[in-house]
Amino acid sequence: MVPFHGFKYTLVFVLFLLLSFGQALFAQDLSLQKPRVYNSEEEITGWVMSEKLDGIRGYWNGKKLLTRKGLTLNPPAWFIKNFPGFELDGELWSKRGDFEFIQSTVLDKNPGNGWEKITYNIFEVPNEKGDFLFRLSKARAWFKIHNNNHIRFIPQIRIKDKSDLDLFLDEVQSKGGEGVIVKDPEMPYHTGRSAHVLKVKNFWDMEGVVIGLNKGKGKYETMMGSLTIKLENEIIFKLGTGFTDQIRKNPPSIGTIVTFKYYGFTKNGIPKFASFLRVRQD
Predict the structure, then answer these.
(1) Do domains 34-200 and 204-280 have the same CATH topology?
(2) What average pLDDT does the segment 173-186 reach?
(3) Lowest mean pLDDT: which of 15-19, 161-165, 232-236?
(4) Fewest CB within 10 angstroms: 75, 146, 150, 262, which?
(5) What share of residues in the chain are helix, strand, coil (percent, to 5)?
């Protein structure tokens, strides 16, 4: 029989675990605007383009910052000072090629000094009336009066023809940027994926859930050789390239969401030339 005091401590520990992990267990994707993949056949003349920042998406619901999965972020009070009572959508970002730092800083439950290097880069004002640029103007007007040094607005460049997009994409990626977002500025705000918001890259990326760890061979005999990944459409495949030795020694655990890049699909729906990019925690 378990002594009462032992039972009490066990109960307290269980409650602590529930409080710590409950948010992650019940988090669900927010109903936000999401881009489709550009296939170069769309008519984009007159649209606007902007750099796709490789950070952590932050949705401001008028009271607090949330990740795309609906997890509550814990920025310092000074970071969200003067944020408005209306919604904002943007990217928490520092600089190109800095994703690991951004993710560890932004997802830390105890905000540290790293937030000093983070900016909030606004690219949408959800659920506001009017076209895209009009919606953005509401946020610009707010922060013109209510100053916050960590606020940025992602520049939106008008597309005269497709050559503008090609040149801009080359410029962004030559600087180490991830890609470009093109958007129909005449559209009212909408959620989900549509043909009016597109992401443009020289490769595609996707997320999947790790459901298996496979032992390596040869020089990787004592390490992880590949991950077995399950996609949202239930397709299962092995992801075996793109890993550093450090990741092979300490691979993502079962249930982890990872991002990988690929170049189209096989006839069986398997991503072609898939290569690991990073672990996602948001």
Answers:
(1) no
(2) 93
(3) 15-19
(4) 146
(5) 25, 30, 45
Give catalytic status of residue 52 as yes or no: yes
DSSP-based three-state secondary structure for 4: helix
177 pLDDT exceeds 60?
yes
| Token couple for 255 | 């249930």
> What residue spans define the domains of the chain?
34-200, 204-280
Task: Count Cβ atoms below 10 Å from residue 49 Cβ, excluding itself.
Answer: 22
- Overall CATH class of domain 204-280: mainly beta
Residue 76, SS3 per DSSP: coil
| The CATH homologous superfamily of the domain defined by 34-200 | DNA ligase/mRNA capping enzyme (3.30.470.30)
236: left (phi over 0), alpha (psi -120 to 50) or beta: beta
Split at pLDDT 50, 70, 90, the class of 273 is: confident
Tokens of 189: 């705000």
Prediction pTM value: 0.74
* pLDDT at residue 203, rounded to an integer: 79
Nearest to 94 by CA among 108, 77, 115, 70: 115
Q: Per the structure block, which two tokens stand in for 153?
A: 């607005």
- Report in angstroms the alpha-carbon separations of 217 from 182, 214, 222, 223: 43, 10, 8, 8
Catalytic residue among 8, 34, 52, 267: 52
